[in-house]
Amino acid sequence: MKIISAIIKPFKLDDVREAIAEVGVDGLTVSEVKGFGRQKGHTELYRGAEYQVDFLPKVKLEIATKAENVDRIIEAISSAAYTGKIGDGKIFVYDLSNVVRIRTGEVDAEAI
Ligand SMILES: Nc1ncnc2c1ncn2[C@@H]1O[C@H](COP(=O)(O)OP(=O)(O)OP(=O)(O)O)[C@@H](O)[C@H]1O
Ligand SMILES: [Mg+2]
Question: Using a 6 Å cutoff on CB, does residue 45 contact ligand 1?
Answer without folding.
Answer: no
